[in-house]
Each structure stands twice: as C-alpha cells, then as structure tokens.
From TrEMBL:
HAMAP family: ISPT
GO BP terms in the entry: polyprenol biosynthetic process
One Pfam family per UniProt: Prenyltransf
GO cellular component annotations of the record: endoplasmic reticulum
EC number: 2.5.1.-
Protein name: Alkyl transferase
Class of enzymatic activity (EC top level): transferase
Amino acid sequence: MAFIMDGNRRFASRLNKASTAGHEFGYLKLLDALEWCLEMGVSCVSVFAFSIDNFKRPPQEVAMLMQLAEEKLEELLQEYKLIEKHGVCIRVLGDLSLLPLSVRAAADRVMEATQHHKRGRLNICLAYGSWQEMSQAIGHLQKEVQSGSLSPEDVDGRALDARSHTAGCPPVDILIRTSGESRLSDFLLWQSGTAQLQFTDVLWPEFSFWDLLKALVLWQLARPDLERIGQAAERRRQTHAYS
Ligand code: IPE
Ligand code: MG
C-alpha cells in the first residue's frame, strides 16, 4: 500500500490556519493511517512525505518542512509502542544526501532503532524521486560490473530491483493519491507497475478509516483481474531476457 499524501496546505487554508498546521495534521494522519493499515493486515506501507521536486518550493517552506520532518522522525520513536506491537521496520528512502544533516541524523536514528523489526515495514520517502532512485540503482550495477563482482549476464530486472530503495518489499498493490490530483509525480514508478491506482478528492488530513476501507474493498473487487495481470507480468519476467 502506498500513499501520495497530498492536500495538507489546502486543508489548513480551509481552516484559516498556516500551512505548518496542515503539515502537522498530515503527520498525525500518517500515524493513524499506519495503524489502520497494520490492524487491517497491510504490512508494507510507503508514503511520499517530500519529493526531490518539493525542494523547488519557497526556501522558507522547505526549511519549515525539513524542521518538521526532523521533529516528526524523533516523535516516531516515541510512538514506539505502535511500532513495536506490529514489529515495524522504518526506512527513510530517497537521496538522503539532499537532506540537512540534522534530518539525516534523525532518519538514521529511527532506522537504526527499528532495523530488527521484521513483521511490518514503513517506507518514508523523503527527498525521493523515482528517476533518482533508478539512476542510482543503474550506477550501482555499472560499478559492480566494472569491478567484476557482477557478471553482465546477471544484469536484469531482478538485479535492478535488488538495488532499488525498496529492495525486499513486495510490489505496490494499491497506490492512493489524495486531494483530487491524478498524477504519479515520480513516486515509486518501478514498484507500481501492477498497482491499482486510486485517486480520491479527500484531502490527506481528512482521510478517514472509511476511506481506507473503501480503498481496500475497491482493490478486493478488482483482485481477480489484478492477480491475473500480475501473474502474466511475472511469467513475462521469467521467460524474457529482461527478467
Ligand atoms: C502534501 O501537501 C505535503 C507535501 C508535499 C510536503 P501539500 O503541501 O502539497 O498541500 P497542497 O497540495 O498544496 O494542499
Ligand atoms: Mg500538493
């Protein structure tokens, strides 16, 4: 399950509040949504918290969002009961070199504290973009081939997947974008090839348990088709050189 959490500022402006408040609400909703997903048996959740493109926002807003990210990563450790109860390993994915050092340190702390958890997974995509991710993965493959640690025949889709930020995670089954926008915005493009895309008008801070339930029902209804398509894709991967 993946979420493009969109609509925080519009939510704040509806309440006549500053955009920071919208992002605060957005973070609280992330915790709720994570808990609902875990309770409903969804064990891998990926969220788009900040894209590489978001660095183009006004510097003051970027600084505010970075400060918030740092604070919220610290706070996640205080939510340890929820994280521990469901055995959630938290990973912060993206080009972490673009983040301020203090945010990077907070990300490292949360990843280290939860790395032994095996049952659930929360991928927080921060300074993330699929193009960056794929370019980096291809760069790794190239270096490994050059150094002789990987033979050129072993360069295939699986090898690329293993070097993606989400290595070890299942492909995305449902990708939800809130706030009426129907764009993928360079989010998990490689991982979402067989995902069901769901676009809802609800703004992220107002996303409710019922919205999640509706998403799960829509996915269940489409599941026979999605499974057939997924299996066909898997067969193609196994029988072609680009597997
Ligand atoms: C999503 O909400 C959060 C981030 C991208 C950081 P927005 O900040 O995009 O809020 P809207 O879409 O302008 O309402
Ligand atoms: Mg937006």
